[in-house]
UniProtKB/TrEMBL annotation:
Protein name, entry field: SUEL-type lectin domain-containing protein
The organism of origin for this protein: Gongylonema pulchrum
Lineage of origin: Eukaryota, Metazoa, Ecdysozoa, Nematoda, Chromadorea
Residue span, DUF7808 domain: 2-122
Length: 130
């Protein structure tokens, strides 16, 4: 489970998100990372892509947004999951960049999470591979 806490943008800085990696909603084993997002420009529009730390996963998927009634962030319209090479990214754009929101993302690996020695090692490995 990856829980993104994103703050509303009020200027041209890249999106202010932190991501907390957990084994599940009730997990006490968690690791928080900041600075894993970067701004992108394409055809005059801006988006922010954040690493999911799901590198090597078979898939990554959106679970939920909080608050659920946030009308500025619309799934698959201005926030979505994208695969790029072997990595997965949470991408936000448009009105969703101007909204404070929590987005939960899941990763599906073809191996047991017990094989991951620690989240800090996972983050370190992915930082060096990109």
């Amino acid at each position: 489970l990856r829980q993104y806490s994103c703050k509303a943008e009020d200027d041209m800085k890249s999106g202010n998100c932190t991501v907390t990696l957990k084994h599940g909603y009730d997990s006490i084993d968690e690791y928080t990372v900041s600075g894993s997002c970067h701004m992108e420009k394409s055809d005059g529009s801006r988006s922010v892509a954040c690493k999911t730390y799901c590198g090597g996963a078979m898939t990554a998927y959106l679970i939920a947004k909080r608050p659920a009634n946030n009308a500025q962030c619309i799934k698959n319209f201005n926030y979505r999951i994208e695969q790029r090479a072997k990595n997965w990214f949470l991408v936000r754009s448009g009105a969703c960049l101007k909204s404070s929101i929590q987005i939960d993302v899941g990763c599906l690996f073809d191996y047991s999470v017990d094989k991951v020695s620690s989240f800090s090692n996972m983050v370190e490995d992915e930082m060096h591979s990109s």
